[in-house]
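Late entry, evening session. Most of the bench is empty. Finally got around to the prediction I had been postponing all week. Sequence below, unchanged from the version circulated by S.P.
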Amino acid sequence: LVLVLDDLQWSDILSLNIIEYMMTDTQNPNPLMIVGCFRSNEVDDSHALSKQSKDLEDKSERLGFDITRVNVGNLQLGAVNQVIMSMLAVNDKGTMLSFFTIGSCLGRFTVVRYSFIEYNRIHDDGHPKPKPLDDRRLLQV
């Protein structure tokens, strides 16, 4: 049995204790794999998940269970576009944009504008960013 838990950065102490109990229950004859996912940029050393994780690593050797960490980085914009295009079964970005906007010209402008605003909001990592579009430049696209 595999149990996948996402967004563990939002877990409360009680939920983390239940997960710990399931992982350390060595008397259970049925094997269980728990895959826990969390955003590492939202979990620092003082976070409850960090403390629980360190406790589990200490117990793993003593109780005989394995913990494996896999750090996954962010997808690049091109990779995200490819995933979305695959999911929608389209082969170009124009078709993808039409899918989201149902062909509406105003809808296309809104999606493009929102995408640039959102990109600039979340990409504050010191890397060069595209210039934000103002409404006048957007209408020229």
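Two things to note before I forget:
The CA atoms of residues 21 and 111 lie 45 Å apart.
Residues 105-122 form the longest helix (18 residues).
Will write this up properly tomorrow.
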